[in-house]
Amino acid sequence: MSDLGFGPFSTVVVNVPLIGGAAPPQPRFNLMPPSNYVAGLGRGAAGFTTRSDIGPARANGDGNADVNHKFDDFEGHDAGLFANAESDDQDKEADAIWDAIDRRMDSRRKDRREAKLKQEIENYRASNPKVSGQFVDLTRKLHTLSEDEWDSIPEIGNYSHRLY
Question: Which one has a higher pLDDT value, 106 or 71?
Fold first, then answer.
């Protein structure tokens, strides 16, 4: 044993397979995934495309930039197919109609939001009353106390610096 480099305090681990035992699992790194496999789908990931998947974007400083390209507040520089199209009276009328619909839907949602918030506040106040509200019935009865009863109420004092 000393020829192999083992001394009196060496630790030797020997793995002896059991007869009829199962073979150790083989690593699966070299297996190909199924054709319909989507990485991360089991964790809620869905298919999406990023700019790096599409290809490099046009540099801002290159001389080939379209100087007639209009910047759209809603879509930015990605205005789409009709970015350079002029709008006519029908387009303006349709935009006005859709704006009115958006305002109407927002007001409906606002009413529901406010009603829900009011209900949540009422529920919270019902389950968590103020301390002053818990003693309203007792404070209403204070006018019935005599002077002797008032004098018998002990003074609070300052116990904040009291040592225990």
Answer: 106
